[in-house]
Each structure stands twice: as C-alpha cells, then as structure tokens.
Amino acid sequence: MKRVLLAKFLLWTGFAASYAVGSTESIDRRAVQDSNQKTAIPSRDGLRFVIDGHADYFAGSNSYWIPFLKSNSDVDMVMSHLKQSGLKVLRVWGFNDVNEIPTDGRVWFHHIQNGASVINEGADGLQRLDYVVKSAEAHNVKLIVNFVNNWGDYGGIAAYNTAFGGNATSWYTDKASQKSYRDYIKAVISRYKGSSAIFAWELANEPRCRGCDTSVIYNWAKSTSAFIKSLEPARMVCIGDEGMGLTTQSDGSYPFTYYEGVDFEKNLQIPTIDFGTLHLYPSQWSEQDPWGNLWIKAHGAACVKAGKPCLLEEYGSLALAASEASWQQTALKSKGIAGDTFWQYGDNLSSGPSPNDGYTVYRGTANYTILVTDHVKDVKKLNSH
Ligand SMILES: *[C@@H]1O[C@H](CO)[C@@H](O)[C@H](O)[C@H]1NC(C)=O
Ligand SMILES: *[C@@H]1O[C@H](CO)[C@@H](O)[C@H](O)[C@H]1NC(C)=O
Ligand SMILES: *[C@@H]1O[C@H](CO)[C@@H](O)[C@H](O)[C@H]1NC(C)=O
Prior knowledge:
This protein has helices at residues 2-14, 24-37, 72-85, 126-139, 156-164, 175-192, 214-231, 264-268, 291-306, 321-333, 366-384, and strands spanning 43-45, 48-51, 54-56, 58-62, 89-93, 97-98, 110-113, 116-119, 142-146, 198-202, 236-238, 276-280, 310-315, 337-342, 345-346, 348-349, 352-353, 361-362. The protein has 385 residues and is of the alpha/beta class. The chain has a single domain (57-383), classed as Alpha-Beta Barrel (TIM Barrel). The strands form five sheets. It has an eight-stranded parallel β-sheet with strand order 11-10-9-5-4-14-13-12. The chain has a three-stranded antiparallel β-sheet with strand order 1-2-3, with no helix packed on it. Residues 167, 169-170 line the site of one 2-acetamido-2-deoxy-beta-D-glucopyranose. One of its GO terms (molecular function) is mannan endo-1,4-beta-mannosidase activity.
C-alpha cells in the first residue's frame, strides 16, 4: 500500500498540478481504494487516531479559508498538494455567520438577524463546503469542521449577540442563540453523514468564557457534544478549545489557569468528547517560544491520564521554522499527543497567494521544507516503529 501511494506521489509530481492518472491499472487501484474509504470513518483507539485502519500519528494543517473559495480547481489544487505532502488532516471553518447578506458575491453560510436564522444552501453557501468535502474524499484528506467562532472573524459569537442579544459569556446559555447554533449544526451534519472525509466535528474555534465558572463551558460542551452524537454517533467530536486550564505540570502561567473559563482536564472527561485539542501561540500569551515544549508535554500527560488522544491543533510562532520544528519534535516524543496540524497552510491560488496572517507557511518555501517535508518524514519514521 505504501509503495503504491509513493508511486502515485511521484506520478503526480511529474505531471505537476494534474492529477489525471495515466494508466488503467492505477485507475483500478484507485477505485478499489476509494470504495474501501467510503466505509472508513476516522476514529480513535486508546491514545491514537485511526485513519484507514492505521492507528498512527498524523500530521496536517489548517486552512480556514478553503470553504470560502469559489473556484473548484483551487480547492482541488490545495487538496492534491496536501495529499502529495503527506498532510492527512485539514482543519477548516465550517461556519460563516453574517448579520447582513453580502451583496458582493462573497460566500456566506448562516444569516442571523433580528432573532431569525437562514441557512444558505445555495451556490455561494454550503455548496462551497460540499465541494471541499467532495474534494477531500477524492484526495483522502480528513477534515475537522467547526461550527462557530469565539472571535469576530466570519461572524462568530458576536454575530449571534447582534441577532439574538446577550454577550460573549451569556451566549453559552442563551436559549435563542443555542437554538440557532444547533439548527445550523444539524443542517451541516445532515449533508455529510457517513462521509469518509470528516475527521471530526468541532464545537467551536477557541471557545472562552472569561471570568465564568468553568461549569459554563463544561455544561455547554457536554450537552452540545451529546446533541452531535445523537445526530451521528460514529463520528468523533472535539471542542476546539486552546487547551487552557490544567493542573498537570502547570507552571502557574496564564494559559494553565482557569482565567478564560476553560478546564481542559474536566472537559476531557465528557464521554461524548473523543479527544483533547490544544493551541500554541506563546507570543500572544506573553511566553517565550521554548515554553511551548512544556505546554505540549503537559497536555500529553493529561491525555494519558484521561486515556484519550490529544491533537496539537494550532501552533504558530513568528520565528516559524526555528521554534515550530522543535515543538513538532516534542509532540512526536510526547505520549498522548497523537497528531499536529500547524497554523497555517499557504498556497498559490488563482486569485493570488492564500491569506497570510504572519503564520502562513507557503508550499515550496524553505520553511515548508522544514515544517512539512522533514516533519512528514519524521512522522513516517515514528509510525514504522
Ligand atoms: C453578560 O450578560 C450576563 C447576563 O445578562 C451578565 O451577567 C454579564 O455581566 C454580561 N457580561 C458583560 C461583560 O457585559
Ligand atoms: C507562487 O506564485 C509566485 C508568483 O507567481 C511564484 O513566484 C512562486 O514560485 C509560486 N510558488 C509556488 C510554490 O508555486
Ligand atoms: C521562515 O520564515 C521566517 C519568518 O517569515 C523567516 O524569517 C525565515 O527566514 C524563514 N526561514 C526559512 C528557512 O525560510
């Protein structure tokens, strides 16, 4: 199997962006592989994730923007590049909440205004996410799809507050907001039930409830994840939080505290939460980059205690390669850490370079070689042991 895949990578590399397959034999093999994948829903086994029957460590990335692209060929290009690079898991934004319907043709998914919600199933709506899922299926890339942003980008909790009242902390218990959020979740899940391309459903991007008792987020995560499992029991579910609030190996610094209303270890006990997530941005948390190694090890240990895998789901340093490569090494060595998805993947789209927030690692650059090519080699080495 591995040799077949390698041969295909070489074939694809040879034909640049084209992923048309040259021989009947390859087409047949791909068809067999594809039909097997239809039934293979990613899962977990002990402290590992399982993809296509392999309980391995998985490397991947984030590209929040891919569901908002209007060009199918851009989506296919990114997916084929991810596949060529050996990046198996891609985290994308499954939300795009607006208070006003855009008039410039921009993609939007969920219009919320004056207490009412409309889900956009049109060509500039969830059909864009449909294409991402379809392309991921074709390229055997596994998606983490989340349902709301804690931050204001693409709507988020602030957009719900505008439509339904309340504020950033009352949102978690606000009846009207939660009903609209759940209706949206149900609409998205119903489109991709049983798809081999979904790695996990994720409650939110970086939920926080500053100054709240940690029971607020705990109760919300517990009931929302149970709701999702009722819609699709076999699918993994995660929270999408930054991993804040833990006592294991705590040095007492801000991210380890409950200041943002998150208790990582308590939340991981929720039976309908399959794995823990952690994010890592020392420069935004008044820490130095080497501190990131402690953060990773602490979560690995907490995940071992809980008997569930941890995903280093976002990490970014403005020094890019130098710091991030050392975090990758730590992740590979830490029991309990089962995968990592760096923030964020960059590529050349037909419209120009994909978004750059200072943390983007563009394909084909020297940083990409270090953080992707070399890392994927290390991952393969680890998995072959
Ligand atoms: C948010 O709303 C709640 C409930 O009405 C209130 O108790 C809290 O003080 C508000 N928080 C802020 C920051 O306004
Ligand atoms: C991306 O496009 C730029 C400008 O056209 C080009 O210089 C660069 O080599 C391209 N990078 C890759 C990885 O294709
Ligand atoms: C990686 O990116 C950083 C930040 O943009 C840059 O300073 C550094 O030179 C790059 N390193 C390599 C090896 O390309």
